[in-house]
Amino acid sequence: MRQVMVNLATGDVQFEADEQVRLEHIWDGIEQMGYHVVKDEQESQRASWKSSLTIKWVVCLLLTLPLLLHMWLSWHWLHLPWVQALLATPVVVIGLSHFGRSAWHALRNGAANMDVLITIGVVAGYGYSLLAWLAPKLFGMSHPPVYFEASAAIISFVLLGNWLEQKAVKRTASAVEALLRLQVTQAHRLNPVSGEVEEVDSRVLRPEDEVFIREGEQVPADSQVIWGEAWVNESIFTGESVPVMRTAGSMLMGGTVVERGTVRARVKAVGQEAVLGKMIALVQQAQSRKPSVQRLADRISAVFVPVVVIIALLTIVLGVAVFHLSLSAALLRAMAVLVIACPCAMGLATPAAIMVGLGKASRMGILVKDPEVVEKVRKLHTLVFDKTGTLTLGQLTITGYCSFHIPEKQFQAIVASLERHSAHPVAKAIEREWGNLSGFAFARVEEKKGWGVEGIDEQGNIYRLGHARWFADLLEVPPGHPLYLVRMQTFAEQQAELLGWIDLHDQLRPEAKPVIQTLKQQGYHLVLLSGDRRQVCEAVARELGIEEVYAEQTPEGKQRILQQLMQRGTLAMVGDGINDAPALAQADISVAVAEASTIAMQSASIVLLGNSLQQLPLALQLARLTYQTIRENLLWALAYNLVAIPAAAVGALSPIIAAFSMGFSDLVLVINSLRLYARKIRLA
């Protein structure tokens, strides 16, 4: 097994393994460590019923309350040791079945968890009380005190804390659960044999199935419209509630809602291959990954339990030998120390905040793929922007062209045939306007990132379509145009000739200027880094107020400049994710402004699914708030243990109060994390 990631808050485990590995062996190993593996939904329901915290807690509480009443009521029968033992024993059995199994397996595997401390405390208190009742002479007293109520109360209060924590933790995963629910809906499928429309579960749909989606219905799977038109609410991906028009040929993403209209569509992707499935997988993966601050907390927790056990033993020894306490009084203090210590607070501090923060981000159309971002953003100094498709709409239009040596239609056909092999916004513009022309036959076409597109025809002629700098060593071209077509007669590149040039225009994003002004006000240093012409880049920079500009850069040049800029401090690269992959991969933080269908891109740590720059300051603000919440959680966990353990050791806290405090401490962390949902995050 490799790349093992465990989400403490949800119980999810992700790992990589070779195909020949038998999963049954892995399940057995996990079971031997004291955990239960849930393999399917039905088993999950059975396991939930068998191990219901609610049932365990209610039973334990009903038996514990009479035990606690004896401290306030003088009823004689409540003070009888055999009555207290009769009430406490079922509680202890339930508690040991819940905590003891995990503690035993943890110790057998050379580890120590929270359940070890609870089990030791309960066994010590219950065992002492049994001896005091059954063998009082061992203590030199006829009726030594018994503390059956302490052991029972510890179990009842810890189970209550676990139950409250479980309920609260489920809320931290609510964003992903909401997405999971969107994957299952009813679909109206066209039966390919009978031609009738039948209602089926969306999980049985397969690619190439045809479905009808009516007004008000949820799109059951990623589909392409083949008939009709509709206004679709895509807010689950983009965060934007305004519906968008979808017509024949348009793609519909599973989970979105048709607000107006009816369409017939052909299914293209289902399950994990659909956009929603990929998004869920990426969010879950990001929530399971551990930032460096969590790895530090893990290392602290690893030595925490042995240290607490040592403190508990010292409490007994020093209490009896130095402070002349009775054995029972010293034992009570040691039990309080064991129970009140809370290493799970350290373990929950980061994942609880990460789950809420990343879940909220996904609701806003912001996909955070790397949780390290929440730590890096607080040190962020420089934001570097690509131009085309990032600061501009990327919807270029051809404003002029000129051809030499070949007919105009042939020039257009060659250009269109080359650009069919590129995903760049320039290629989309040419495909949109000239894509209907007869194709020009090429034996091979290759996109040269940062330069353009190169094709070789059947006669061996080389055609290059790209920036002027690509041809600087071949021939002189008239300046001032973004795109040139050059033909070379031989591979020696000695007979290059200019076949024509093309002028293109791209509009600024309407939100670019206010977003740039907001980021400047927040103190970020802004840089424009582009492969486009210097005149165009400088004009865009002047309009937006960006002072540092690097233009006409190749992918290698972009990487070199990024290295220089990263020496000033933490850097974020913002691009469209199409031709910026090398630069995005190099930056400390990489942000892709993209359509929802491109969420699987590997080079970006943050993807703005709404294809809007307005989400950028929101993403940065949410990352800062998430890190702030992590720090608050860790501070609480540290302060709680630094105060609570000494207080228990000196007798200021009873084991009963300690049990309640331990459960309460975890609950505080989860509630503090849930506050992120209520925080208002908006464009300043």
At a glance:
With 684 residues, this protein is an alpha+beta fold. The chain contains 21 helices and 22 strands. Helix 4 crosses helix 6 (148-172) and helix 5 (114-134) packs antiparallel against helix 6 (148-172).
What do these coordinates show?
The protein is of the alpha+beta class and 684 residues long. Among the domains are: 86 residues, Distorted Sandwich (Calcium-transporting ATPase, cytoplasmic transduction domain A); 118 residues, HAD superfamily/HAD-like (Rossmann fold, 3-Layer(aba) Sandwich), CATH 3.40.50.1000; 109 residues, 3-Layer(aba) Sandwich (Calcium-transporting ATPase, cytoplasmic domain N), CATH 3.40.1110.10. The longest helix is centred in the last third of the chain and has 35 residues. The protein is elongated and about 115 Å long. About 1% of the residues have low confidence.
Q: Which helices and strands occur, and which strands form pairs?
A:
Blueprint: E1 2-6, E2 13-16, H1 23-32, H2 41-50, H3 53-69, H4 81-108, H5 114-134, H6 148-172, H7 174-182, E3 186-190, E4 197-201, E5 210-213, E6 222-233, H8 235-238, E7 244-246, E8 251-252, E9 257-269, H9 275-288, H10 292-321, H11 327-340, H12 343-363, E10 366-368, H13 373-376, E11 380-385, E12 397-403, H14 408-419, H15 425-434, E13 444-448, E14 452-456, E15 462-466, E16 483-488, E17 496-505, H16 512-521, E18 525-529, H17 534-544, E19 548-550, H18 555-566, E20 570-575, H19 581-586, E21 589-593, E22 606-608, H20 615-649, H21 655-678
Parallel strand pairs: 11-18, 11-20, 18-19, 20-21, 21-22
Antiparallel strand pairs: 1-2, 3-4, 3-5, 5-9, 6-7, 6-8, 6-9, 10-22, 12-17, 13-14, 14-15, 15-16, 16-17
